[in-house]
Amino acid sequence: MSAPARTYHILGVPLRTGSLYPGSENDAQPYRDAQLLARLLAAGRAAVDDGDVAIPSYLPHHAIPPIRSWPGPRIAWDHVGERLAPILGQPGHVPLLVGCDCSIVVGSAQALRRAVGDDLHVLYIDGDFDDAAPDPARCQSAAAVAVWLLTRASPFWVGPPLASAQVMVVGWSNGPQSPEAGVRSVSLAEVRRVGAATAARQALDGIAASASVLVHLDIDVFQRRAVPAAYFPHAEGLSLAEGGELLGALLRDPRIRIIEVAEYASLRDDDQRSVGALVDLLVGSLTG
Q1: Nearest to 98 by CA among 266, 262, 267
Q2: Parallel, antiparallel or unpaired: strands 7-12 and 46-52
Q3: Which domains, from first to last, does the chain contain?
Q4: Per-residue pLDDT tens digits for 221-257
């Protein structure tokens, strides 16, 4: 399947309330400094910079179990959903979210469901499974429980949850913490065994032709030496070449309706080497 004509809407999400540690609330700006918009336009893709989602300044910051800074993430998800709604209402218009943490997937999936109904699928590309259950005995980030929240009925968001079959975690090296949920996955080892492009095709082949797809990319799926400015970098992970093969096969699929790139920590990227590599990867994957 070839991709239809698309317009990409670059949206910064100055959100760190869902993460474990604060301090990097303007992570979308480096993508702009690295000329993401100009490079997409130069490659012949329709794209606009829609600025940043207006995240309120009053969000709580605390370390009270079970979810740190709650209800800040939920408030942010609602604002993201409101901003995505008019874009998703236009055929061929694809939000490209940058500067967010992994918890954003709950809000963006909720927005996509409101736009298209129940026929949607999330491809969650991450070095971790992010399916830890909220635990009243300890404080966890909303990012660490993102897949759990996405697939479980709970008091933490309005739901309804997605079925486990509607979510696939790809590229993980740290396995599931709630395996009983039955979320499908393709590990880093399996991606390498079959090859990144084949793994991508197999993942897409398992999704209904009618479905709308959200691609979530946590950059800690890449090995630390390739992208050291990940929020929680992993020593083991995809190389940039493997990531290019994987994303190149995924992002050109015509069913893609939302793309989000999470967990970039600009405070660790003084020379902008990491964000430069990420922009290279995104432009190549969207235009190749």
Answers
A1: 262
A2: parallel
A3: 7-287 (3.40.800.10)
A4: 999 999 999 988 999 999 999 999 999 999 999 999 9
